[in-house]
Amino acid sequence: MLRRWWFMERLRPAVPVQRPGELSKEQQLVLDEWTTARERLDRLVSARVTAVGDVLRTAELPLRTNRLADNSGADSQAEGDCAWAFDAFQAAGKLLDEASDLPDLAAAAVLADRALERFAAVHARAAGQPVPKAARRCFYNPLHTAAEDTHSPVRKQHRQKARRRTGPREAAADRRPACPSCRRAILAGQTPDVLPALVPVKLSRLRTARVLVPYYSVPQQWSLWSVCACGAYGDEWPSLVLRGEHRRRAAAARKV
Ligand SMILES: [Zn+2]
After folding, report:
1. More exposed terminus of the chain, fewer Cβ within 10 Å: N or C?
2. pLDDT the model gives residue 153
């Protein structure tokens, strides 16, 4: 997505003088590209959230979480996990309705997927089956296929050998969880296919431009998603979204 977004970095110093309210050609290009990406992402994420909703609606809660047979720790964990899964799914729907930028939509997809994962874990535990491992999402774009597990023994061995061979690039590739495609790009010294975010940049007292930057470089006061790979890490995000924290931070960015 938006493989050409970083051209804005080069355009930024050359933005011509414009009257307030008038968009430069470069700004229009950025906004057009962002709008196209947003429409595409909106369709994809809507479909994903709807599909997860269908599964959650038709799946039955494991018996022991519906009606506690005893007060064991397993039951309270199952109750907590089910509550988190439903909150995460509700937060995904809210983000889809109120998204102000691409990372909000990505977070909707991530939280919906995580709701399903958590729900599947409750079922597996109740059935005495091994709990499926949660997906490790690509840090550069959490909508990419699952990241490679660099902690597996085979991977670690390979990494140690490769590090001796390639040094800094291998170290950069291992710094964050990366999908195979992003990892290949980093190892080749190229920019991975990063999820962009639209942020304001103050050009003068009267003029503010919008530029596309990697979502993880957006200041935390403007976005919940820069520190957690769009909700992929940590459990606090559904409750923050349900309290409207994503809207408050987006409003702070609009004040620039
Ligand atoms: Zn990736």
Report:
1. C
2. 57
